[in-house]
Design brief:
Layout (H helix, E strand, L loop, with lengths): L4 H10 L12 H20 L1 H5 L8 H26 L5 H9 L17 H21 L5 H29 L3 H20 L11 H6 L7 H19 L9 E3 L4 E3 L5 H11 L3 H14 L1 H20 L1
Antiparallel strand pairs: 1-2
The protein binds Phenylacetyl coenzyme A.
């Protein structure tokens, strides 16, 4: 029988009982979750920008409606995740302020430009594909609100991945120019997608502790390998190539070997020096300023309702 709050906490983790907002938790566990969940929320919100860039230029009305729905889904994911962060005792305002000031991180992947329509396919197939592998693991994370948010997110992400693959499949069966556009998008998004899983396990600062607390259940490298094994098969259906001369099936490991990731590029992007970091933050700052009247109106409305209730 557990004696003190810490023992009780560890016993729950051991017994696969979710930790809930009112439960006692170590301060470092709370801080790790705030860091990870808020970074995840920011990624969803910043992640709307590269695709938002193509809503007005989607090739058909149907494609436009699908893309619009997908980008709206990302906004919803951001909101579930900001709400999950709030259950840990930090305000939405301070979390968003950390993003806008450049203090908080978000996924490196969203600092690359979307140059052609094929990029919408590559993002859905590769970026959502990588995100799902990570988020399926997070459906079983030890903190209840984060696990439940991920369950909802994953349902929508699987539609996102399929719609991306379908865009590329259509292009891959099209004209020479469309096929070249498809291959070019795969070439540009492949390596940044592999970087989404984070640094190598040997360089990952948080993995050991997060695994002990069952926040993470598979390592960065394990998830990356699963992604390579999945995509290396799916790319054959597209009749396209992954841009890695070292990609090769390893019969002994029953997995694909693959080439070395450019970690210098990864850290450069994480530190704010990727192709679109500045542009992404500026777009969010502008949206925040332009949306000030909505927040003011919502507050004024809430105040009015409160006064009405008081008067009644
Ligand atoms: N980019 O010790 P670790 C999506 C940082 S959602 C930037 O291994 P950890 C949906 C890391 O924060 C995609 N920074 O860290 C969508 C840490 O820095 P810190 C986002 C990165 O937390 C699709 C440092 O490096 N998904 O795509 C990255 O144990 C399409 C050391 O790393 C999530 O956020 C990176 N790629 O493992 C939307 C999932 N990788 O905080 C629109 C939740 C690492 O010490 C369109 N997050 N760093 O300053 C996670 O699962 C984990 O946080 C990892 C990193 C696996 C990302």
């Amino acid at each position: 029988m557990a004696q003190n709050p810490e023992e009780l906490f560890l016993e729950k983790i051991e017994d696969e009982i979710k930790i809930e907002p009112r439960d006692w938790m170590p301060e470092a566990y709370r801080k790790t979750l705030i860091r990870q969940i808020s970074q995840h929320a920011h990624s969803e919100i910043i992640g709307m920008l590269p695709e938002g860039n193509w809503i007005t230029r989607a090739p058909t009305l149907k494609r436009k409606a699908i893309l619009l729905a997908k980008v709206q889904d990302e906004a919803g994911h951001g909101l579930y995740l900001y709400a999950a962060t709030e259950t840990l005792g930090v305000s939405r305002e301070s979390t968003v302020a950390d993003l806008l000031s450049g203090k908080a991180k978000y996924s490196s992947i969203f600092n690359y430009p979307t140059l052609t329509w094929a990029d919408m396919g590559a993002i859905g197939w590769l970026v959502d594909g990588a995100a799902i592998l990570n988020q399926v693991m997070l459906c079983r994370t030890s903190y209840g609100p984060y696990a439940r948010a991920n369950i909802r997110i994953c349902k929508e992400e699987s539609f996102h991945q399929r719609q991306g693959f379908e865009i590329l499949l259509t292009l891959s069966r099209g004209t020479e120019i469309q096929r070249a556009m498809c291959q070019d998008a795969i070439n540009r998004w492949w390596w940044p997608s592999l970087m989404m899983f984070g640094p190598k396990d040997s360089e990952s600062t948080h993995s050991d502790q997060s695994t002990k607390w069952k926040i993470k259940r598979q390592s960065n490298d394990e998830l990356r390998q699963r992604f390579v094994d999945m995509i290396a098969e799916q790319v054959k259906v597209l009749n396209m190539q992954l841009p890695d001369p070292d990609l090769k099936w390893n019969e002994e490991r029953r997995s694909y070997d693959f080439g070395e990731i450019n970690w210098e590029e990864f850290w450069n992007v994480v530190k704010g020096n990727g192709p679109c970091n500045k542009e992404r933050l500026e777009a969010r700052r502008k949206a925040h300023t332009d949306g000030a009247w909505v927040r003011d109106a919502a507050l004024a409305h809430a105040e009015k309702q409160k006064n009405k209730q008081r008067a009644a």
